[in-house]
Amino acid sequence: MKTVNEQGLFNNYASEPAVYYAEFPSEYQQSQYLWQGAVATLVVATLFLTAISVG
Predict the structure, then answer these.
(1) What's the mean pLDDT in 28-48?
(2) Taking CA 32 as the corner, what is the angle to CA 22 and CA 19, rounded to the nearest 5 degrees?
(3) SS3 4
(4) Beta 10-12 vs 2-4: how paired, if at all?
(5) Cα gap 38→45, rounded to integer Å
(6) What tens digit of pLDDT does each residue of 20-34 get?
(7) What is the pTM for the complete model shown?
(8) Looking at the predicted structure, is the pLDDT value of residue 1 above 60?
(9) What dihedral angle (degrees, nearest 10) is formed by the CA atoms of 44, 48, 53, 55?
(10) Residues of the chain above pLDDT 90, percent
(11) Where do the structural domains in the chain lie, given as residue ranges?
(12) Cα dihedral across residues 20, 24, 27, 30: positive or negative
């Protein structure tokens, strides 16, 4: 919503989003996060070792 004051300046305020509480991840989501973390660790370790071996 745009409003204009007496000097002709706009007062643009962002609308506030609805607030909600996050839910704790289920057992399936937790296991998926574990696999994603393992794969990410493997990728980073591979990149790191490759950089060391090249340099």
Answers:
(1) 98
(2) 10
(3) strand
(4) antiparallel
(5) 11
(6) 999 999 999 999 999
(7) 0.58
(8) no
(9) 140
(10) 67
(11) 26-55
(12) positive
What is the C-alpha to C-alpha distance for residues 8 and 26, in angstroms, rounded to an integer? Answer: 53
| Nearest-5° Cα angle at 46, 27 to 54 | 170
- Whether the pLDDT of residue 37 is over 80: the answer is yes
Residue with tokens 């794969």, as numbered in its chain: 39
Can you state the percent helix, strand and coil of the chain, rounding each to 5? 50, 10, 40
| Rounded distance between C-alpha atoms, residue 27 and residue 2, angstroms | 46
Residue length of the chain: 55
d(CA 5, CA 21): 37
In the numeric block, the tokens 């300046």 are attached to 9
Angstrom CA distances, 15 to 12, 32, 54, stand at 9, 35, 52
